Amino acid sequence: MSKFYVVATPIGNLGDITFRAVETLKSVDLILCEDTRETKKILNKYNINTSMMSYHTHSKLAKTDKIFELLSEGKNLALVSDAGTPGISDPGAMLVSKIKDNLRHSVDVIPVPGPTALITALSASGLPTHEFTFLGFLPHKKGRETLFKEIAQSGRTMVFYESPHRILKTLESLRKFCPNKKVCLARELTKIYEEFKTDPPVELLEYLKENPKKQKGEFTVLISD
């Protein structure tokens, strides 16, 4: 049977890749990646010479057909995202689902675990971790207010990803719907400017407005009572 590896890669610090991930990426026939330029940084650091092919949200059906063709020929492939674990708020989830639906008798889907911003943020947030809900990336418009109301009513720790372009707007919504919740902003995880900041939403909003440079980078947002 062909093997399709779902390989986690670093979310920032390139030293966080596992030995198994490096060996897997060296051994497969092809690596599928969101952005070949991003994946090339990892391949260069660890002297991995495996060929790459892009696969992302906007990939056409022909790409999926080509992947199915390679797997049917007995090739072993690896799927990586730009950062973290493929399939977690990531277009790779759809590809894995299609392989499971159409090639389950001829392809083994094998996870190679490693970094993910979700668990990294939870582990050092200081917020309750025994029960949590992950919301991925929040919708830009439709359904956004409904989710903030759900966050306000939840007794669990709620976690989602946010971009630097919408972090102020998100904090405004959190101030409106759950002003008394504890919010942790985990920014630039595992990178040079990694930061954890935990306060009520209004204080975080003031902090970011007073420090515009702190608005940069990718955010994992965690909310708890």
Order of strands across the main sheet: 3-2-4-1-5
Rg estimate, integer Å = 19 Å
The fold-level CATH name of the largest domain is Cobalt-precorrin-4 Transmethylase, domain 1
- Give the mean pLDDT: 95
Characterize the largest beta sheet: strand count, sense, and whether it forms a barrel.
Answer: 5 strands, parallel
- The tally of helices reads 8
Tell me the number of strands.
10
Which series of helices and strands comes N to C? EHEHEHEHEHEHEHEEHE
CATH class categorisation of the largest domain: Alpha Beta
**Amino- and carboxy-terminal Cα gap:** 49 Å
Q: What is the CATH homologous superfamily assignment of the largest domain?
A: Tetrapyrrole methylase, N-terminal domain
Structural descriptors:
36% helix; 23% strand; elongated; 225 residues; 5-stranded mixed beta sheet
Give a verbal description of the structure.
The protein has eight helices and ten strands. The protein is an alpha/beta fold. It folds into two domains: 2-112, Tetrapyrrole methylase, N-terminal domain (Cobalt-precorrin-4 Transmethylase, domain 1); 117-224, Methyltransferase, Cobalt-precorrin-4 Transmethylase, Domain 2. The chain has a five-stranded parallel β-sheet, with helices on both faces. A five-stranded mixed β-sheet has the order 6-7-10-8-9, with helices on both faces. The protein is elongated and about 55 Å long. 32% of the residues are buried. The mean pLDDT is 95.
